[in-house]
Design a protein that fits this description.
It is a single chain. The chain is α/β, with parallel strands linked by helices. It has a single domain, classed as P-loop containing nucleotide triphosphate hydrolases (Rossmann fold, 3-Layer(aba) Sandwich), CATH 3.40.50. The longest helix is centred in the C-terminal third of the chain and has 15 residues. The radius of gyration is 18 Å and the shape is globular. The protein starts with 8 loop residues before the first strand and ends in a 5-residue tail after the last strand. The structure holds adenosine-5'-triphosphate (ATP) and magnesium ion. Adenosine-5'-triphosphate binds next to α1.
Length: 230
């Protein structure tokens, strides 16, 4: 198991294909210091989601190595790995139950006060208390009654409460209004603080936030640097 994780993530000469003939990633080298945030950008199919899939060890047939704190992710148990990585996917996972239960998902022992604190920190509290039964409002599976922005903020509250050392986030592509975007950006900077994070970024505002931007093209890294350098 991984204990006392720092959160340094390294991809060492990583080549990977879903189908054997066509690699989705080719010779990727990436070394991310603990606590830094990386924005992954590039055209559709360039390999952004594949990078985060491999960090989460959704696939094992990797050439090269994916290392967390110097340890190959294949040498640790899936459970201990996943307990250290917070995952916020594009299609935010919301199940039928109350808002409270949805935020508590990764931390079953969390108190109501902790849940509210997390929701406040990511600016989700205001919309939650405006719902018919506040934190006890029942949402349907897939969260259909909530807007895209609200779902995203809810998933941020969930991730913040779980407090992982490493965060992986596939940003929602759906269009949201300027005010919600601003709110999400503020929430995001709170969420990123002190963790190593990989964000598949679709918004320029998110990209500006990142310590490092990685530009992918056809499974290869084309450019790497911060917003001012690129
Ligand atoms: P997008 O912006 O559209 O999400 P992406 O940069 O995340 O694109 P990936 O999903 O990493 O792209 O895909 C990289 C390559 O791998 C593409 O050629 C894609 O068709 C292929 N691919 C992705 N997922 C699978 C899968 N589950 N099975 C087979 N091929 C896949
Ligand atoms: Mg993708």
């Amino acid at each position: 198991p991984i204990s006392e994780l720092q959160g340094r993530v390294k991809l060492e000469n990583v080549t990977f294909g879903y189908e054997s003939d066509r690699p989705a990633l080719k010779g990727i080298n990436l070394d991310v210091e603990a606590g830094l945030s990386v924005a992954l950008v590039g055209h559709t199919g360039s390999g952004k989601s594949t990078i985060v899939n491999l960090i989460c060890r959704f696939y094992d047939t990797v050439e090269g190595r994916v290392l967390i704190d110097g340890q190959d992710v294949r040498d640790v148990t899936i459970d201990s790995l996943r307990s250290q990585i917070g995952i916020v996917l594009q299609d935010t996972f919301i199940f039928s139950g109350t808002i409270r239960e949805n935020i508590r998902y990764g931390r079953p022992d969390a108190t109501d006060a902790e849940i509210e604190a997390a929701a406040r920190a990511v600016r989700a509290h205001d919309f939650i208390v405006d719902l018919p039964s506040g934190y006890d409002t029942e949402v349907e599976e897939r969260g259909n009654a909530l807007s895209v922005g609200q779902r995203q903020l809810l998933s941020f509250a969930r991730a913040l409460l779980a407090d992982p050392r490493i965060l992986v986030l596939d940003e929602a592509t759906a269009s949201i209004d300027t005010e919600t975007e601003l709110r999400i950006q503020e929430a995001l900077s709170t969420l990123l603080q002190g963790r190593t994070s990989f964000i598949v970024a679709h918004r320029l505002s998110t990209i500006r936030h990142a310590d490092c931007i990685v530009v992918l093209d056809h499974g290869e890294i084309m450019e790497m640097g911060n917003h001012d350098e690129l």
